[in-house]
Amino acid sequence: METDYFLAGICVVLLCLRGFASPGVCPDRCDCQQPQRLTCANRGLRFVPPQSGDREEVLVLSLGGNFIGNISAVDLGSFTGLVRLDLQFNQIQSIHPRAFEKLYHLEELYLGHNHLSEIHTGTLQPLKKLTVLYGNNNDIIEITPGLFDTLDRLVKLRLDGNKIQSLQDSLFKDLDNLRYLHLESNQLQHIHRNAFSKLANLRFLNLSRNKLPALRGAPTFAHLTALTTLLLSENEIQHVGNKVFHNLKKLSTLSLCNNRIAHLHRGTLLGLSSLKEFLIDGNELEDIPAGLLDPLELVEHLDFSRNRISRVDSLAFIHLKHLRVLKLRNNVLTSLPGDIFNLNNFLRDLDLHGNNWSCDCRLEKLKRWMSATHSQGKLFDVFVRCHHPATLRGTPLDHVNSSQLQTVGNWSHLCGSHSEHERNQGAKMKGDVWQEKSGRDDPKQQKRDKTRQGKEEAGIQGDQGGTEVPLLVHSFKKDSHRSKSPTDVFRKSAKVGGKLSRTKLEKHKTTPSHDGTQESASTTLIPPIEMFDLLRMDHQGAPSIITDPCAFNRHFITNVSVDQVTSTTVTVYWATPGLSPILDEVHYRIMFDRFGKSDRFPRYVYSPGSSRSVTLRELRPDVTYMVCVEGVVSGSVCQVAPRDHCSGLVTLSEDSVSTANLQLVTVLTLAGNAVLLLILGLVWLGRSLKKRLQRRKSAVHVRHMYSTRRPFRANVANTASTDFTSYHSSRPARLVPPELGDLIEFPCDRVHDTGSSRREIDLPRFSD
């Protein structure tokens, strides 16, 4: 034992001496706690730490976040075993051409966020094992030809955030294994047709936020046959030539958003047979012609938002069988062909908000399609609000009756041949133009217009005049799940200093209906659609204003529950206590997602403001879902997830009976068991009573056998006479009646009397 303790002490001393013998292994202000890693990041260093011993064992050197200005030829000479070198977020202005001369094993080099304006040719030549190179966010103006020679193992290259103006011929010729190339946020104006000629394995190319004026030649991307993502957003592209993307057979994402594209030729998208996401929002497109999108056979996501689109051909989406998301938000559309989406069976998200919709007979088929899709529980988002005529402005198309979709004037032929009219008509028909033309052509119509105009003026004029505010009137039945459309739209004026001073909320009225129930009607004065405010009554009875959908969720939505769960469907219920009469700008969005799954797939169902339940369809069996309900106020939703109004559910399996109510089955089973137990108990009780009665009838009580107060039974008499023959024979027969002769009486005083004299007198002695 003493020897072991002695050896342990020697080891400890040797370790201490080793630490004191090499005090320079870990540089000052650096961290060497982790083996094979030297961390000197964010230490205020202005130079690379000086050499102190052999550093071949160091694999990772971190010098980021310091104030290093230059990298000399000898600063990194001793780190011959480095695999990763981090020099980001310094002030490096120059790197000596021989700075990386001995870093033969280096695989990752990070030079981003410095002040490099040039990297000399040959500087990276010794790094033959390099796979990751970051040169982003520097001041590089031009990429020196031959800079990436010998880097045939490079996989990811970042040059974004520089000042590169052009890409020369065969600039990346030796990068055969390059997968990711970032060139965004530069000043690129010209790309040589052979700049990407050797990048046959490139998967990702980002050219966003540059100054590219056009995409004219097909050879520019002709050699990128393995490319899956191409980002060209936020450039200055005005023209895209035919067959520019013809050879990109594997491309799945193409972004051309925020450019100046006014027209796309029918051959522009040829070759993109694998494209799934096409983003061209924020441009100047005026129409979507037939055949333009036909090559996109597998596309799922289309975004045409923020353009100038006024016409969409009825055959524009006919070949897009897999289309799921279509965004036409913030364009100048006035109508859409009614059968335009009939073949897009997988369409789930349709955004039509922010257009100048004319609610006439041309939208009747679209309204019918929307209603049918809503009834099927399809998951899609449709906000179509009337812009013309003025009497329906701001009203959702869902709430407009078919009788209100009337064509003004002599334009009824548009409803019968809408598709042909859309192909030939270039100008947009405004509601005012229709009214003016109808007034000129039809004297009767002109007279009706004057009469209606007089009535409107009489309704508009108030006591003082001023700002016009539309007054929406809603009528809906009690306990109804569907609210009727607005029956009328009035205008009143209220002017206080030229601005809207207050918002009136008229008293809620209740009137009896024809069927005996009560109909409630309320008249709410609200600002125009641009200044929409949701009114509600606070606890003091004064109207307060809610425009924030988050506040709406917090104050109104309660009691979220689920019912009627099957393997593929479920019905979601919620309540809105204290909500004032339903306004057109209120909708509900029901989100449901697979709970506890790594592959999250949140989906949405939109319901009108009058609904308090919705049926979700196309669920998966035996899957746990989280269902949440939130409000949509004036087309806006709360950015915070509505986790306070959620409910969970588990769908049934496919082999189970979907229509069976498990609770009812359980109750019936328990009731049947209780009845069975009751019957068994009654049977047992009856048998017990029967046995007891039988025993009582067959039993002979002693009092019956020996009592002198009851007549003697024959069978008992025979037995008694037989047993007591000797006694009866000694008594005189004449003194005892025959029927009472066999009765025996045992007086207590005689039985217990042991006196021999009395026994001899009254009873004869007989032997055993």
Q: TL;DR?
A:
This protein has 768 residues and is an alpha/beta fold. The protein has 13 helices and 38 strands.
Q: How is this structure best described in words?
A:
- The chain has 768 residues and is of the alpha/beta class.
- It has 5 domains: 33-211, Alpha-Beta Horseshoe (Leucine-rich repeat, LRR (right-handed beta-alpha superhelix)); 258-408, Leucine-rich repeat, LRR (right-handed beta-alpha superhelix); 455-531, no CATH class; 549-664, Immunoglobulin-like (Sandwich), CATH 2.60.40; 703-768, no CATH class.
- It contains 13 helices and 38 strands.
- The strands form 10 sheets. It has a 14-stranded parallel sheet with strand order 1-2-4-6-7-8-10-12-14-16-17-19-21-22, with no helix packed on it. Strands 33, 34, 36, 37 and 38 form a 5-stranded antiparallel sheet that branches. Strands 26-25-28-27 form a 4-stranded antiparallel sheet.
- Strand 27 (509-512) and strand 28 (518-525) form a beta hairpin.
- Helix 5 (431-441) packs across helix 6.
- The radius of gyration is 48 Å and the shape is extended.
- The chain starts with a helix and ends in a 6-residue tail after the last helix.
